[in-house]
């Protein structure tokens, strides 16, 4: 256990150390000059949600797709093409320009290289669907954060009007369109980090791996590319496996990757000498995490390994979100 688990901790440590250094430098400056600290950090925290929402809204209104196809365009043209008011569109475009997502010139607005790489809905490294998942699911949940903290429960009923017992069936997989959006979101988010994850450790000693809840295989294909002697099985729900073919890349590494449908809480896990859990454990309450890890532990033979990686979650009981 614990190979990939170290990654978020290291990142967390790095971020905490960086902010501690900045904070102690600033504190030293205020103390030396006998002045009150400026409220900059607090104001940034207060305004942070506006930045996210501007990005979500521009993605939702397909501003980056439009400018990818036809940019540069004027405010009036963009407003007409996305079916929005000229005044409101102007504010949104200027916000995106201020955030480094759009360039504003006399010829109009166009995507910056950052937006071109990550925000077009059909880009190779697209995070567009990942943004939309945050707009449609995370945003409503976080609006009820105070209830989640008070009650210690997932706020599915208040946020989405669902029971919150099976988030996948109730929300992400309730129809094929939503399912593909979720799969695209996972694919994009995992693909941008897959190479770093695959090469963070030397896995050349393993010959077989099973990526539990491995979705489209974004990490599996990268592992296969990096380790030609490794066979990777993706084990995920049947409705995911049936559409995983939509995400199959070209290249010789594809022969090393196979897909097995199943439920990791109920069905027999495929045999492997390395088990991978990428962005899985944060989805479940402690009793389910315990159940899953116990099942993996029973499947492991001596000398085999289970690894967990989380690309962003470091909180202690994220299941309430
Ligand atoms: C947050 S996604 C992570 C996907 C992928 N591991 C990644 O890093 O991009 C969680 C995945 O777990 C799968 N999953 C959820 N419940 C499952 C279950 N009971 N058995 C197998 N897979 C499951 C979902 O279908 C989804 O693909």
Automatic annotation (TrEMBL):
Biological function: Catalyzes the transfer of a methyl group onto N-acetylserotonin, producing melatonin (N-acetyl-5-methoxytryptamine).
Active site: residue positions: 282 (proton acceptor)
Pathway info: Aromatic compound metabolism; melatonin biosynthesis; melatonin from serotonin: step 1/2
Gene Ontology MF terms: acetylserotonin O-methyltransferase activity; protein dimerization activity
Name of the protein this chain belongs to: Acetylserotonin O-methyltransferase
GO BP terms in the entry: melatonin biosynthetic process; methylation
Alphabetized InterPro entries for the sequence: COMT-like, COMT_C, COMT_dimerisation, SAM-dependent_MTases_sf, WH-like_DNA-bd_sf, WH_DNA-bd_sf
S-adenosyl-L-methionine as UniProt keyword: yes
Gene3D superfamilies to which the protein is assigned, alphabetical: Vaccinia Virus protein VP39, Winged helix-like DNA-binding domain superfamily/Winged helix DNA-binding domain
Species in which this protein is naturally found: Phyllostomus discolor
């Amino acid at each position: 256990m614990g190979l990939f688990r170290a990654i978020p901790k290291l990142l967390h440590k790095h971020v905490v150390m960086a902010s501690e250094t900045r904070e102690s430098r600033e504190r030293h400056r205020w103390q030396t000059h006998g002045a009150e600290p400026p409220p900059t950090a607090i104001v940034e925290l207060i305004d942070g949600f506006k930045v996210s929402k501007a990005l979500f809204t521009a993605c939702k209104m397909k501003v980056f797709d439009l400018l990818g196809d036809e940019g540069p365009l004027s405010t009036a043209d963009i407003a007409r093409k996305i079916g929005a008011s000229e005044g409101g569109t102007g504010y949104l475009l200027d916000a995106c320009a201020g955030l480094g997502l759009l360039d504003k010139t006399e010829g109009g607005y166009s995507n910056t290289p950052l937006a071109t790489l990550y925000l077009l809905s059909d880009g190779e490294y697209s995070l567009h669907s990942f943004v939309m998942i945050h707009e449609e699911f995370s945003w409503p949940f976080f609006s009820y954060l105070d209830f989640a903290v008070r009650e210690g429960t997932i706020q599915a009923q208040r946020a989405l009007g669902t029971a919150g017992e099976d988030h996948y069936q109730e929300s992400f997989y309730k129809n094929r369109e939503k399912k593909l959006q979720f799969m695209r979101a996972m694919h994009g988010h995992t693909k941008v980090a897959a190479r770093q994850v695959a090469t963070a450790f030397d896995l050349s000693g393993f010959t077989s791996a099973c990526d539990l809840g491995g979705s489209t295989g974004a990490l599996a294909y990268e592992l296969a590319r990096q380790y030609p002697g490794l066979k990777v099985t993706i084990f995920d729900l049947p409705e995911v496996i049936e559409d995983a073919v939509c995400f199959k890349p070209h290249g010789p590494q594809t022969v090393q990757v196979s897909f097995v449908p199943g439920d990791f809480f109920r069905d027999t896990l495929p045999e492997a000498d390395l088990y991978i859990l990428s962005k899985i454990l944060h989805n479940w309450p402690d009793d389910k995490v315990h159940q899953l890890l116990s099942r993996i532990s029973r499947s492991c033979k001596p000398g085999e390994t289970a690894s967990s990686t989380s690309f962003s979650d470091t909180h202690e009981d994220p299941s309430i979100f």
